[in-house]
Amino acid sequence: MTTVRVYVTLKPSLLDSAGRTVAQSLGKLGYSELQEVRIGKLIELKLETYDEARVKEMCNKLLANPVIEDYRIEVAP
């Protein structure tokens, strides 16, 4: 069994309103060193066999929106 992690984030050119809200809140809590917050999601898949093309297909069809999101695939050791 293989564990695959897919990290999905908004493309850098897009405004991350949730990240901005968190950044403002952390600033109000005294974390003045904070410059920016970007929020994404982590999807962990347990697969019988790892096929990179199949995982990319999953990402492009359902796990990420390629128009507005980037994703990174990581195979756990």
Total helical elements: 2
| Class of secondary structure makeup | alpha+beta
Give the spatial strand order of the biggest sheet: 2-1-3
How far apart the termini lie comes to 11 Å
Per CATH, what is the topology? Mth169, Chain: A
- Write the element-wise H/E pattern from the N-terminal end onward: EHEHE
Q: Would you state the CATH class?
A: Alpha Beta
What's the number of extended β-strand segments? 3
How large, in whole angstroms, is the Cα Rg?
16 Å
Give a verbal description of the structure.
The chain is of the alpha+beta class. It has one domain: Mth169, Chain: A, CATH 3.30.1280.10. The chain has two helices and three strands; from the N terminus they run E-H-E-H-E. A three-stranded antiparallel beta sheet has the order 2-1-3, covered by helices on one side. It is elongated, with a radius of gyration of 16 Å.
Task: Give the arrangement of secondary structure elements.
Blueprint lengths: L1 E9 L6 H12 L11 E8 L4 H12 L5 E7 L2
Antiparallel strand pairs: 1-2, 1-3
Summarize the structure.
With 77 residues, this protein is an alpha+beta fold. It is 31% helix and 31% strand.
Features:
77 residues, Mth169, Chain: A, three-stranded antiparallel β-sheet, 3 strands, elongated
